[in-house]
């Protein structure tokens, strides 16, 4: 009986072994192709394109533009490399084998410019691969932008502010951010503050100098249209010079683009702030 079970298991293994080895070879081939793609970006070697794409390959970019044919794809990458040096990280999410000649591969990418760290593109891809003489090549490539979670970005900024991690707050801002304090707030004298350094010196540094403590409380985030996030909250603070505390109602309107804050507008009970500042 035992020998019969062993024989049956061996028979099942022999039947499934070709499929197992085929899947393993396909997975290994996909990872080899992805590594070659990374090497092409790192070395700016256009010769790798012949090994990566079929002659009739096509790419649909995340902006909707389409590139078709091997020579057009080479021209696309040539223009990219002429614009600067880049890094790319790829992650395979799923592989679906259609047959021995075709398969779908989906994944994610992060594409960043080395000399401009803030120039980052992230998204997902779905590639149709074709087996050409034993090598997997890209026949069709579809790239999709990943919509950033704007509320999560703003939430991260508030959390960083609460623990005094000001560099993290500034790092979430676009280099040309337009920051406006509420009218009648004394900090509005510098409106608009352009760029993170202006916000640091004109707003954050002055808040720290004027207050014994300045805390944000009861923060509620509201995801809006047009890449905007509305935060309703309260300021719990104490002025140094007057010694008075205040708890003021406030609202912040954040505008984001490509995962960075490009504009900020404050609304606050400025009378309560002014009254608390008086000795």
Give me the secondary-structure topology.
Blueprint lengths: L1 H42 L4 H5 E8 L5 E3 L1 H13 L3 E12 L4 E12 L2 E17 L2 E11 L4 H13 L3 H6 L1 E8 L12 E2 L1 H15 E13 L4 E12 L5 E13 L2 E9 L1 H8 L2
Parallel strand pairs: 1-6, 7-12
Antiparallel strand pairs: 1-2, 3-4, 4-5, 5-6, 7-8, 9-10, 10-11, 11-12
Descriptive account of the structure:
- Strand 9 (211-223) and strand 10 (228-239) form a beta hairpin.
- The protein has a six-stranded mixed sheet. The protein has a six-stranded mixed sheet with strand order 8-7-12-11-10-9.
- The chain is elongated and about 85 Å long.
- It is built from seven helices and twelve strands.
- The protein is an alpha+beta fold and 279 residues long.
- Residues 154-262 form the SnoaL-like domain.
- InterPro entries: DUF4440, NTF2-like_dom_sf, SnoaL-like.
- This is Nuclear transport factor 2 family protein.
- Main β-sheet description: 6 strands, mixed
Total strands: 12
Q: Distance N terminus to C terminus?
A: 96 Å
Helicity, as a percent range: 25-40%
The radius of gyration computed from the alpha-carbon positions, rounded to a whole number of angstroms, is 28 Å
Q: Can you write the helix and strand succession as a string?
A: HHEEHEEEEHHEEHEEEEH
Give the class from helix and strand content and strand pairing: alpha+beta
* Residue runs with pLDDT of under 50 for 5 or more positions: 6-24
Average per-residue pLDDT, rounded, comes to 87
Major sheet strand order? 2-1-6-5-4-3
Shape: elongated
What fraction strand?
35-45%
**Helix run count:** 7
Keywords: Signal
InterPro entries: DUF4440, NTF2-like_dom_sf, SnoaL-like
Pfam families: DUF4440, SnoaL_2
Protein name: Nuclear transport factor 2 family protein
